[in-house]
Design a protein that fits this description.
862 residues, alpha/beta, Rossmann fold, seven-stranded mixed beta sheet, 13% strand, binds S-adenosylmethionine, binds 2-acetamido-2-deoxy-beta-D-glucopyranose, transmembrane, membrane
């Protein structure tokens, strides 16, 4: 008995799944039948929806497909599956095989981008669609490019004669002469068997899969695009087909795959090359259920198919989604390219790409590929001190030696975004949400204080990216945008991609109004070639930010939405909505002051409100991004106001902190802080025309009259040209980590916003990366003499200014909010400082850090 049970249990389970599946399917089938619209044409290629479904259902679940007995292996089985439903194939698959247009759009976008940047508009391309079935995809591609003009030849390779027949009819109807239907096993398809009519002796690589690593020398020809749309899962010998892709693919060609899959996130935990894993995990029930279900139709969903693809090629983009119509079947889209740069017996190539990226990230010397010899690259490796290597470099070297693909960031079209490990707690703590949808720092004042030039190397906190973009308008040599929160950087990437790919009207809709009804299709067909895989995934999962009809657009997302919502709520409940409108349309400062003083201030600033809402630490943190340490500084200033006449930072002692202070002062301190923030702003700038920072909070979107400078048509004109962002590097890390990896004496400007306020003043441990001492020492090392640090603080005299002065900086307070004056249009901070590096610190650490970099810099100025 005991031995009997285990043997039947798995079968039982399987049978149960099958039954559950079949029942569900019937239900879904009914939905499908009801939602399918009969085609208006009504010819034999589009039979009625009900008939379609019956035939599909019969072929999929009732008809035994063991072949017709001629013993022709897979073709037999395929044919027995498809023969009965070839005619209804397209009608029944429209919804089942979802996402095909998206994959085609992504692939087309890459090809169009390539032809734009390489100026190869006239060059014709080759496209191979493996398992192309009825040719539906090839016809659907015409939504993105004109198939007869864009491609010189298109090969549809399919093993099922009856589907090939449908395809032939389709292309005869369309009159597309460049499409060739090849009824053949994908394992044996070779391009050179078909492209032999090219006159100039195109040398296709005949390399078999086994000598893949020998692919060097000038490779001419090959497919520029290979697609597998829901066919990889139907090919039993998928290893052989995937291997054959690398010899089929042109050196700069791309592969597009869409298919069903199931996978547990556990499989991926040690991989850094997948390009993000948003939604990739499928729970255990889904994994069992969908595999068992698809097994019936000989469709293999096991993770290995996708894993092998990702291992054999470099990942450009990947995204996971669900087909909800049929009960959330998981599917993925993937774009890949040859992982060639890792090929180990082409000595210069891998070093070149790695060095180039490394140089880009760390401000170490860049060696041109032409001058680049192996000896030189070895010197770089041995001479640059290890801590000056970028993290991207570390990842690349380890994965190179393990013969793995490089992280997906290396295969992207732009090298803006630097690789980071998204599994680290310091990044996951943000829970896929950005805090700032807009930046609360006055870029006009920054520009006046900094006066960036073409020589400047700037490091700044990303936030929402607004200020990064405003710095980019001065075209400094390099901008390092740094943020620990990956989602802030995703937002910046989106903005940069939008400059690169969209006309001003769309750009304005996205970031001026914060809404765009076509965001998803723009993301796929225009923005995707300019984004990293992770940013793309993020926005694909969050298209509702711009598109939701219920939502209020970009500026009511992220942590700062709470502030806007509270203002809206207050305005409604306390009934001063019309007054706010009046405030925003005030023509003169006097008018504005009057409305404020008479109608709004008394209500908004009522102490009751303050106690209920504003003094809540939790609220402040979420809505304004005020961390506890900063709150403590505000309180300290409230209790011990700095002497207004002598605001010399060095003379006043570091202010004490109020851990022990009674709570009642907290509310008052914050109230006073708010009053000092708002009153002078109302007094000195017209909100409706000149103060986008308050306009966005009160209005929820910008207006053509009033917006940050990065949103103007002139800025768009300037930043949409190609070299505009060549110097941009987006780091997802702490400032300290980035600064410590920069080559010494290279940085000229560091904009820290209020981030120093977040540090804890008692953290004196010099080894801790969060101590002010460590950060300032690192900044000193990275900055040139004369290099500047710009920062703002909630305190009039922040406790860390003397620390700067002790570590080689001269401090100057360039703005202070004293007696009703404004430091800028935001006026959120009490003071603004510029700290200039006046001397190098003695090399305290006797290790390589201080010595190495500058010496090497000279060595390599060849
Ligand atoms: C689910 S259909 C997808 C058809 C089409 N790509 C689409 O998206 O509508 C899978 C296709 O893979 C084809 N196929 C399966 N094994 C194959 C093989 N070894 N060689 C070529 N094609 C194959 C089948 O004939 C079938 O047309
Ligand atoms: C090699 O480098 C030098 C100095 O950087 C440069 O002037 C020269 O043009 C380079 N050679 C080539 C072939 O690019
Ligand atoms: C790829 O490189 C990273 C970076 O060091 C490493 O952590 C990771 O384990 C490597 N991947 C594999 C599969 O070894
Ligand atoms: C790669 O991923 C692993 C696992 O998440 C992680 O431990 C490792 O630090 C990562 N390496 C890099 C360079 O991101
Ligand atoms: C993806 O979108 C869903 C629904 O909007 C959300 O719950 C989830 O957190 C998102 N995931 C990421 C990684 O953004
Ligand atoms: C002040 O508030 C904190 C929580 O916000 C509480 O833990 C603490 O006991 C309070 N102190 C006094 C003196 O009320």
């Amino acid at each position: 008995m005991a031995s009997f049970i285990p043997r039947t249990l798995p079968m039982d389970l399987h049978a149960k799944f099958y039954l559950v599946g079949a029942t569900l399917f019937l239900l879904v089938g009914i939905i499908l039948t009801l939602t399918l619209r009969p085609s208006s044409k009504g010819n034999e290629e589009s039979p009625s929806a009900f008939e379609s479904f019956l035939r599909f259902f019969y072929a999929s679940f009732l008809k035994p497909h063991n072949g017709d007995g001629t013993g022709n292996g897979q073709q037999d089985a395929l044919e027995s599956f498809y023969k009965a439903q070839a005619g209804v194939y397209d009608t029944t698959r429209k919804r089942l095989l979802r996402g095909r247009e998206d994959m085609l759009g992504l692939a087309a976008a890459q090809l169009v981008h390539k032809s734009d940047t390489e100026g190869t508009h006239d060059v014709k391309r080759i496209w191979v669609d493996i398992g192309g079935g009825t040719g539906w995809n090839i016809e659907a591609m015409s939504e993105f490019v004109s198939v007869p003009e864009f491609f010189s030849s298109v090969y549809l390779v399919d093993f099922s004669p009856s589907l090939c027949e449908v395809a032939r009819k389709r292309f005869a109807r369309l009159g597309w002469k460049n499409v060739k239907v090849v009824c053949q096993d994908a394992r044996t398809f070779r391009l050179e068997d078909h492209e032999d009519n090219t006159p100039d002796a195109v040398t296709f690589r005949r390399s078999s899969a086994s000598n893949y690593y020998a692919e060097d020398g000038p490779n001419v020809g090959g497919a520029d695009l290979i697609t597998l749309s829901y066919s990889l899962s139907m090919i039993p010998d998928f290893y052989s087909v995937i291997d054959s892709l690398s010899s089929l693919l042109a050196p700069s060609g791309i592969i597009g795959v869409i298919d069903f899959y199931v996978q547990s996130i556990v499989d991926l935990s040690c991989r850094n090359y997948t390009g993000g894993a948003i939604n990739r995990h499928v729970n255990w029930f889904g994994r069992l259920f969908w595999r068992a279900w698809f097994d019936v139709d000989r469709v293999g969903l096991e993770p290995g198919r996708r894993d092998y693809l990702e291992y054999r090629f470099g990942t450009i983009l990947g995204a996971d989604s669900r087909n909800y119509l049929l009960g959330s079947i998981p599917y993925y889209m993937w774009l890949g390219c040859s992982k060639k740069p890792t090929s180990l017996n082409t000595p210069n190539y891998p070093h070149e790409i790695v060095d180039r990226l490394d140089a880009a990230v760390t401000e170490s010397p860049y060696l041109s590929p032409v001058n680049h010899t192996q000896a030189l690259s070895r010197t770089v490796e041995s001479s640059t001190p290890p801590e000056l290597r970028s993290k991207a470099f570390d990842a690349a070297i380890i994965n190179l030696s393990a013969n793995l693909p490089l992280p997906s960031f290396f295969y992207q079209n732009h090298h803006w975004r630097i690789h980071y490990d998204d599994q680290l707690k310091k990044h996951t703590q943000f829970k896929h949400e950005y805090i700032y949808a807009f930046t609360w720092e006055d870029s006009r004042v920054d520009n006046r204080l900094l006066k960036l030039g073409s020589e400047d190397v700037v490091l700044a906190i990303t936030s929402a990216g607004d200020n990064i973009l405003s710095y980019a308008l001065s075209s400094p040599a390099r901008i390092h945008a740094v943020d620990m929160n990956p989602n802030q950087n995703h937002l910046l990437e989106l903005k940069v991609a939008a400059y690169s790919a969209l006309p001003y009207a769309d750009f304005w809709k996205l970031f001026g109004e914060g809404r765009h009804a076509d965001f998803r299709s723009l993301l796929i067909s225009r923005l995707s070639p300019h984004m990293s895989s992770r940013a793309f995934q993020y926005w694909l999962n969050n298209t509702h930010v711009f598109m939701s009809s219920r939502g209020k657009g970009l500026y009511e997302t992220g942590g700062s939405r709470h502030a806007i919502r509270i203002i809206r709520l207050l305005a409604r409940t306390l009934g001063f909505r019309t007054q706010i409108k009046a405030l925003l349309s005030a023509k003169t400062l006097n008018e504005q002051r009057e409305i404020w003083a008479k109608d709004i201030r008394p209500i908004l600033m009522s102490r009751l409100l303050n106690y209920l809402l504003v003094s809540q630490e939790k609220f402040l943190w979420a809505a304004l991004g005020v961390p506890p340490n900063q709150l403590a500084m505000i309180e300290a200033d409230h209790l011990h106001p700095a002497p207004e006449s002598t605001p010399s930072p060095s003379s006043s002692p570091p202010l004490s902190h109020s851990q022990k202070k009674p709570n009642s002062t907290r509310g008052q301190a914050v109230w006073e802080y708010m009053a000092q923030t708002l009153d002078p702003v109302i007094d000195s700038s017209l909100l409706g025309t000149d103060n986008p920072y308050y306009l966005i909070c009160l209005h929820g979107s910008y207006t053509p009259r009033c917006h940050p400078d990065y949103l103007s048509p002139q800025s768009h004109h300037k930043l949409s040209r190609t070299p505009a962002f060549d110097g941009l590097r987006i780091h997802t890390d702490s400032i300290n980590d980035v600064v410590s990896r920069l080559a010494p004496n290279t940085l000229t400007v560091a904009v820290l916003m209020d981030s120093m306020d977040w540090l804890h003043p008692c953290d004196e441990d010099p080894s801790s990366s969060s101590s002010a001492n460590t950060q300032i020492t690192q900044l000193n090392r990275a900055l040139k003499i004369g290099g500047r640090v710009l920062l703002r603080s909630a305190a009039l005299v922040p406790w860390y200014v003397p620390v700067f002065e002790g570590l080689g900086f001269g401090a100057k307070r360039v703005g202070a909010r004293i007696k009703g004056s404004c430091i800028d249009r935001v006026n959120m901070y009490a003071s603004c400082y510029v700290l200039t590096k006046i001397r190098n610190l003695p090399a305290v650490d006797s290790n390589t850090r201080a010595r190495g970099g500058s010496v090497d810099l000279e060595d390599f100025e060849i």
